[in-house]
Design brief:
The structure is a single chain. With about 160 residues, the protein is mostly helical. The protein has two domains: about 35 residues; about 120 residues, Di-heme elbow motif domain (Multiheme cytochrome fold, Orthogonal Bundle). Helices cover about 55% and strands about 0% of the residues. The protein starts with a helix and ends in a 9-residue tail after the last helix.
């Protein structure tokens, strides 16, 4: 019976199960060590889990937007599915960039995230944006072209 348990086929199965167990274990360890659960919340302190976000957090903490918005107010869609989908995609991209050290310095918003931020600007400032006219190409103004530092401007 013992020979059957450790036969070549079963040995390969045990190896695959062991490797999957190690992978799941390392993934859980990394998630807990990186305080991954905090990313499911709306607490801006979660952004401090990554030290390269300190300047952005400090600038937001001293901005007028602190009273009315947190990170997710601007950087994620308003619907629940979209919010957590974007958080997952951004979390993956941020962890990859942080781990490999390949990120823009200073940090720059990606085109996908820029569209989300602009949509949230328009949603919150509808009283102003509803009176804006489209340009010659039929496009509404890009809020971040002029107001790109809102919420993250550097303090003097």
């Amino acid at each position: 019976m013992l020979k059957k348990v450790f036969s070549q086929t079963n040995g390969l199965s045990w190896f695959v199960v062991a490797m999957l167990g190690i992978l799941v274990g390392l993934s859980l360890f990394t998630f807990v060590y990186a305080r991954g659960g905090s990313y499911f919340l709306d607490d801006p302190q979660a952004c401090l889990n990554c030290h390269i976000m300190r300047d952005q957090y400090d600038a937001w903490n001293h901005s007028t937007h602190k009273q009315v918005a947190n990170c997710n107010s601007c950087h994620t869609p308003k619907n629940l599915f979209g919010k957590y989908l974007v958080k997952g995609v951004n979390g993956w991209n941020h962890s990859l960039a942080f781990t490999t050290g390949k990120f823009a310095d200073p940090l720059r918003i990606r085109p996908f995230n820029r569209k989300i931020a602009i949509a949230n600007c328009i949603r919150c400032h509808q009283g102003v944006t509803s009176r804006m006219i489209d340009n010659a190409q039929g496009q509404r103004a890009d809020c971040l072209a002029c107001h790109g530092n809102v919420g993250h401007s550097t303090r003097n």
